[in-house]
Amino acid sequence: MKTPSNGPRADGLVDPLRVTRAATVILDHRGVVTGWSPEADRLLGYRAQEMLGRPVDAVSARAASDEDEGWLSPHNPSPRVHEVTLRHRSGRLVRVAAECRGLPDTVAGPTTLLLLTDAELLAEWQLQQAMLHGMATQSPVGLTIYDTDLRVAWANHAARQELPGPFAQYLGRREDELYPGSQVLSALHPPSVTQVMRKVLDTGQTVVDLHYQGCPPSDPGREHVWSLSYYRLQDEEGRPLGVCEESVDVTDLYRAQRRLGLLNEASSVIGSTLDLEHTVRELAEVLVPRVADFIAVDLMGAVLAGREPDTGGPGRSGDLRRVVHRSVREDLPEAVVVPGERADYPEGSPQWQCLATGAPVLNAALKSAGPWLLDDPVRSARMHKLGIHSHMVVPLRARGVTMGVATLMRWRDPLAFVPEDLLLVEELAGRAAICIDNARRFHREHRSALTLQRSLLPSRLPAHSAVEAAYRYLPADTEAGVGGDWFDVLPLACGRVGLVVGDVVGHGIRAAATMGRLRTAVHTLADLDPAPEELLSHLDDLVSRLADEAEEAHPSGVEGVVGATCLYGVYDPVTRRATFARAGQPPPALAHLEQPVEFLGIPAGPPLGMGWLPFESAEVDIPPGSVLALYTDGLLTASDGDTDTGLERLSFALAHPDRPLEDICDTVERVLLPDRPRDDVAFLVARPRPLAPENVATWDLAFQATSVPRARTLTDERLARWQLDELAFSAELIVSELVTNAIRHACGPVELRLIRTETRLVCAVSDHSSTSPHLRRATAGEEGGRGLFLVAQIALRWGTRYTHDGKIIWAELPLPGP
User: Fold this and answer.
1) Distance CA 625, CA 592 (A)
2) 3-state class (DSSP) for residue 417
């Protein structure tokens, strides 16, 4: 409101027409001015000497009208304030509010007191009065005034609604006496309201939107939350008169905010893993104690087994299993069933109804729960003993299928469950049910993935006389448990052994399936016994074909990307040398007994599937007692991504190769691998076992028929020295046939070698021809053609191995047992 610069400015709480504040004019019975106050001078600009003796109409802006009629009459039976227009001494018009009051008659006759004030100021004051009256009687905001001793002095109608009975009984009481046990919810303020008001009274600093929790006298069994504001009341001179409290009951809003906060928290807490039991435990931890004093979560047995739950009728309740329960007390006094056991509920119980209808059941009062408690005396006795007064059962549903139920109870919290609580729990249960269903599906897929993994990777390394080996395999996809890295130890001809590690691009089932195909291909190629670089060339062709097939099937997706790397080596215990070739893999490490760890200088080949560079191999000496380490690149980059750092750590972990291989593997894993590697990791450590010279016998034979009986004689003599006379007949037959074939169908020179390993006797004949004999069935009239057939029948296994200058035909016989 606008206040005239020359008019009296009234305090907002004082009537502007009071005699002490208003402009006063005294009139005689003729309307002539006989008195003129200084306030009238300030309002209209006329001095007293200018107005005394003049009619008051002299300052009127216009002639009397219906609007102004009677405004100078002090004898109106219903006096009222008139709004009239007067003329200021300067000529401008002034809208004023006027009230006439009759004074006692004087000697000169009747006298009238005219009270004048600015009309806008009066209108402002009237609005203030209406506002104050509304705040006292109609406002929904509670107003309470406390005196300087912080005791109740006055309260409006809204505040008195929380104070039943005559208000006089609450006068002079403190806040903590009216609301015992209440507390301030903000950590930024003192813990009690009395302390807050004392600070406001002392400092004059206003406090706004202070949350306060307690039970009002009108509702002692239910906690409320108020939003409180405080400001100091003071007189015109600034002396404190007390503190005014504004209060708004925000219980519903506060609970809604808490529910919203709980939902937000649950969205990041529930389902943090794909472990079913862990997901259920997260749901229980969110709800207890903030919503319930106890919760029990029971799931269908099919869900726990990873199967699709039955969609049958209420009889399914017999298949419920307790998964998790949680209480405000550690001793779980409410629990009747132990986790993992069957949870039986009688027909008609809330759990039975949830499974039958898929709808929640809310029993706000236990006494109205129904007759089902009579059929469950154990639970009934437990609930009555603890004083459980409110009961809620919510189904866990996902994709329209009920997978279990969650049972919530209250006994420590005096408030019963309300529909708002049910809505909150339903929302949380729905989110949890989706996570549980995802976990169930994952459990099923996980079992399939593990089955695939077990079929693709060796469950254990085969025992081999040429090497002792140990390994570790850690897929980056720890949830699926499957990755694209692989390793192998392959028995080869003549007592040799193949060592291999490989890595397929990507993780998961698709990479594992590709890995399985490549591992199978390596097994097949290794049986043909090619040189390492030749094996990688064949594997390179296979990866190229697989990539073409994948790209044709998925021309625009990552499914079309197929790539792999591989390191393949062959160790010969006779020569004590190893030959390696690599395609995109880091070089093998050789840990010496007396020297630093050496990373072998194997020529680097491109990853498999590139097809644009040939592969090269290198042959290295393997000293006795040393350890070979083959690994995928994920081992070197697992810690911090730096390959050089990884090589240094690997050197440290491989030091002292005389330790057990399992200890070496543990050290490598501890030093180089974090808990969750970013890439698949496979590494293989092998300690070669060279053959002693006395276990190998080698003879050069003349390229003539007389060499056949000599070969039999040499074989017989050597077996006698080795005390293997039991094998003499079979070995002589094999040697005789192999030497005969070499002399008849190949070219010289011819070499005979006998090798005795821990479990086998190897007979090997080499020549300088690349033509390999073939097993065939001779006809009745043929004199020859039965030799290799006999060899195949007698030998444990046999085959042909090609060398750079010819071939070796070999056959193995098992050594007799002890």
Assistant:
1) 7
2) coil
Distance of alpha carbon 78 from the chain centroid:
78
**Sign of the torsion formed by the C-alpha atoms of 673, 675, 676 and 681:** positive
Q: Are 498 and 531 in contact (CB under 8 A)?
A: no
Q: Express each pLDDT in 406-458 by its tens digit.
A: 999 999 888 888 888 999 999 999 999 999 998 888 877 767 766 776 677 77
Indicate the length of the chain as a whole number. Answer: 818
Q: Quick count: other Cβ atoms within 10 Å of Cβ 151?
A: 15
What lies within 8 Å, CB to CB, of 128 at 6+ separation is 12, 13
b or e along 700-712 (b: 16 or more beta carbons within 10 Å of the residue's beta carbon)? ebeeeeebbeebb
Residues 271, 276, 277, 278: what is their CA dihedral angle, to the nearest 10 degrees?
Answer: -30
Kindly report the pTM of this predicted structure.
Answer: 0.58
With tokens 């098992």, the residue in question is: 814
Angle formed by the axes of helices 508-527 and 532-553, nearest 10° = 140
| DSSP codes of every residue in 746-800 | S-S-EEEEEEE-SSEEEEEEEES--PPP------TT-SSS-HHHHHHHHSSEEEE
Closest CA to 741 of 785, 780, 790, 783: 785
Gap between the Cα atoms of 117 and 3, Å rounded = 11
Report the alpha-carbon distance of residue 203 to residue 758 in Å, rounded: 96
**Mean pLDDT within 119-123:** 87
CA distance 812 to 294: 71
- Characterize 109-136 residue by residue with b for buried, 16 or more Cβ atoms within 10 angstroms of its Cβ, and e for exposed: eebbbbbbbbbbbbebbeeeeeeeeeee
pLDDT digits (tens, 9 = 90+) for 272-329: 888 889 999 999 999 999 899 999 999 998 888 888 776 554 445 568 899 999 999 9
Question: What six digits make up the tokens of 289?
Answer: 């104690």
What are the structure tokens assigned to 363, written together?
């029993």
Asked whether residue 350 carries a pLDDT value surpassing 50, the answer given is: yes
Q: How far is CA 466 from the centre of its chain?
A: 49
Question: What is the four-CA torsion angle of 292, 295, 300, 303, rounded to 10 degrees?
Answer: 80
- Sign of the torsion angle spanned by Cα atoms 377, 381, 382, 388: positive
Report CA Rg, the chain.
51
- pLDDT tens readout for residues 135-160: 888 888 999 999 999 999 999 998 89
244 vs 248: CA distance, rounded Å: 13
Give the amino acid at 187.
Answer: A
**Across-strand partners of 393?**
361, 407
Give the Cα separation of 393 and 180 in Å (integer): 34
Report the Cα–Cα distance between both ends of the chain, in Å, rounded.
118
Q: Rounded to whole angstroms, how far apart are CA atoms 749 and 756?
A: 23
770: CB partners within 8 A, 6+ apart:
802, 806, 807
pLDDT of residue 652: 93
Strands (E), 475-551: 483-491, 497-507
